Amino acid sequence: MSKSSTLILLGIITILTPLSGFPGALRSFVTLVTGALVLWIGLSMRSRVVLHAPVGVPVATTTEDEPTQDSPPTKKRTASPSEMSAI
Fold first, then answer.
1. In the prediction, which pLDDT does 66 show?
2. What is the mean pLDDT of residues 73-78?
3. How many CB atoms lie within 10 A of CB 37?
4. Rounded to whole angstroms, how far apart are CA atoms 22 and 30?
5. What does the alpha-carbon distance between residue 5 and residue 79 come to, in Å, rounded to a whole number?
6. In the prediction, which pLDDT does 61 show?
7. How many helices (H) and strands (E) would you count in the chain?
8. Tell me, what's the pLDDT at 2?
9. If pLDDT is split at 50, 70 and 90, which confidence band does 84 have?
10. Closest CA to 11 of 28, 27, 29, 31
């Protein structure tokens, strides 16, 4: 099971726990365990993104003009004189 599928399943369990009819202590325990697992998987996924990022490139920002390994470089589009408007 992938991490994202596990997160979805844990989210469903977390939502259904209060409606389960189990005693309060068991509901608290299930909620605590699912919350800890969600936290652990989320931090694991975040650390994987940070660890595999190229050196010197911010993790969250990329520009469309810079080529990536999956896409060829694109030309910058310049406006033609007919597209420019005078203010």
1. 56
2. 59
3. 16
4. 10
5. 45
6. 53
7. 2, 0
8. 85
9. low
10. 31
Between the CA of residue 25 and those of 21, 29, 71, 75, what are the distances in Å? 11, 6, 53, 61
Instruction: Please list, in sequence order, all residues whose beta carbon lies within 8 angstroms of the beta carbon of residue 7, skipping any fewer than 6 positions away.
Output: 38, 41, 42
In this prediction the pTM is: 0.52
How many Å separate Cα 48 from the centre of its chain?
11
Q: Take residue 53 and report the two structure tokens written for it.
A: 């990022």
The whole-angstrom separation of Cα 13 and Cα 30 is: 8
Q: Return the DSSP state at 17.
A: G
Span 29-74, pLDDT tens digits: 999 999 999 999 988 888 877 666 666 656 555 555 555 566 555 6
For residue 37, give the nearest of 71, 3, 68 by alpha carbon.
Answer: 3
Please count the residues of the chain: 87
Q: What are phi and psi of 17, to 5 degrees?
A: -55, -45
